[in-house]
Structures are given as C-alpha cells and as structure tokens.
Amino acid sequence: MGLSKITTQVKAVFFDIDDTLYMKTTDTLPESVIPALKKLKDAGIIVGIATGRVEAAFPEKIRHLIQEVGIDTLVTSNGQFVQCQGKVLRNAAIPNSIVKPVIDFFRKNQIDYAVINNDKLAVSTRSPRVIDALDPITLNYQVDPLYYENHPILQILSFTDESQDPLLLNSGVFSTLKLVRWHPYSMDIFETSGSKARGIETVVQYLGFGMENVMAFGDGLNDLEMLSEVGFGIAMGNAHEELKPKADFITKAVYEDGIEHFLTKSGLIK
C-alpha cells in the first residue's frame, strides 16, 4: 500500500496509549507528540484515543495531552466504552451471570484478579504479581474482591502467567470471553464481541463515514483487530512482532518520535 491516498482519505486517527503515545515504564510522553496531534486536529482530522485502559487509569501526562489537544473521542476498555463529542456511544458491561463464574473460578484456583469499569479499578489483593503488572500502569486502584457484586464491569484482568493459560482456556468458563495477554503476569478479559476495532466502528458510524477513512497507531496484541480493520494500520517500531505483519506501515519506535515521523511522512501534518 502506498502513501498517496492517505491525505485525501483519512478523516480520523486513533492512537493507543501505552508504548504508542506514551512509555509507561518511564512515565514519558515524547515532546513531539502534543505538537503533532495539535497539527493533526488543526488540519480538520478527528484525533481519538483507543486503549485497553479505562479512563480512571489514564496517566496524568495523557490527561494533559487530551486537554491540550482537545480530544473528545475516547475508545476505552478495549472498545467496551466509547465516548464521542460528549456522548456515550457504547457502554458494554459484561453480564453478572458471566462475571460471577469467572470470579468463582479465580477464587477456587487462587488466582488474583481485577474488575474494571470506566470509573474504578478494583483488585482482589495487592500481591507481587498485581504490583508488578498494574503499578506501572496506575496506582489508582482499590482492594475490593467483591466490587463486581454491586457495580457494572467492563473488563476483568487475570494475574496469571503463560503456564496457566491452559488452565483458563480449558476450564469452559471463558467460552464467551476474549483473553488477550498484555503483560507476562496479566491478561485482559472481555466479551468476544469487544475490541478496539468495534469501538472505532461505533464512532465512525455515529460520525457518518467508514473504517476506510480511519488511521490507527498501535503496538500490542490488543491492537490486532484495530490495525487490520481500519483503512491504514500503523505499527510502532517497538510493536509486538505478531502485530507488525498485520500493519499497512511500520513507523519508528515511540522513543524515536514514531508518531510525528509517520504523520509527517504521510503528509497529514507538515
């Protein structure tokens, strides 16, 4: 695929947060990102966030970016919660009839877990695995193993390593759920119909154009559908090796100003 169609076809660009816009291990937002996104918005292109995080777990530097750029389109919790222009377009809580058996399974097998909605993140315990996986992402969580009983849940996290994958996959408990590993000690768990791609599709249907008019940047396994289904999928240079073949283009790494580099190379900004 060449670059020639990008400037005439792209109406919206969505960005993953972790290791795409922002380096979570060092709490660093490249200096080039905010000016690049401002130029993109000034060019009349919709700028959106598409992340596995819930809004309550956004880093302060991303909150600042959203305010500075004026971003009002957010696809969060892997597409389970979608906001655009001040309206909630999708709020797809997992039914409690599905959540409860999952939590019962975790307790039976002594697996730490977290449950998430757009406002809160609650963990079953603050164990070494929870700390290792979650603390670099956010410290804005509470210990409440029963939080799910009285609150809608958009997403579940298991704090498990790859050796435990067969236990989960062969249990029968997760037949209507999607499991995506994002850390050596954790997986995102959400409904099979959910993905960043579905969230973006909700936005473009609302705005009146198509997925072919969307560009998206990502780096992780939860970006597979997104990069495959938008018109122009861009993998970061630091992306997971399984993601890169699904992308239309590969840019430089986040720490090499990969966002600014490709937006400039494509002609979307100058």
UniProtKB/TrEMBL annotation:
<dbReference type="Pfam" id="PF08282">
    <property type="entry name" value="Hydrolase_3"/>
</dbReference>
<dbReference type="GO" id="GO:0016791">
    <property type="term" value="F:phosphatase activity"/>
</dbReference>
<dbReference type="GO" id="GO:0005829">
    <property type="term" value="C:cytosol"/>
</dbReference>
<dbReference type="InterPro" id="IPR023214">
    <property type="entry name" value="HAD_sf"/>
</dbReference>
<dbReference type="InterPro" id="IPR000150">
    <property type="entry name" value="Cof"/>
</dbReference>
<dbReference type="GO" id="GO:0000287">
    <property type="term" value="F:magnesium ion binding"/>
</dbReference>
<dbReference type="InterPro" id="IPR006379">
    <property type="entry name" value="HAD-SF_hydro_IIB"/>
</dbReference>
<keyword id="KW-0378">Hydrolase</keyword>
<dbReference type="InterPro" id="IPR036412">
    <property type="entry name" value="HAD-like_sf"/>
</dbReference>
<protein>
    <submittedName>
        <fullName>Cof family hydrolase</fullName>
    </submittedName>
</protein>
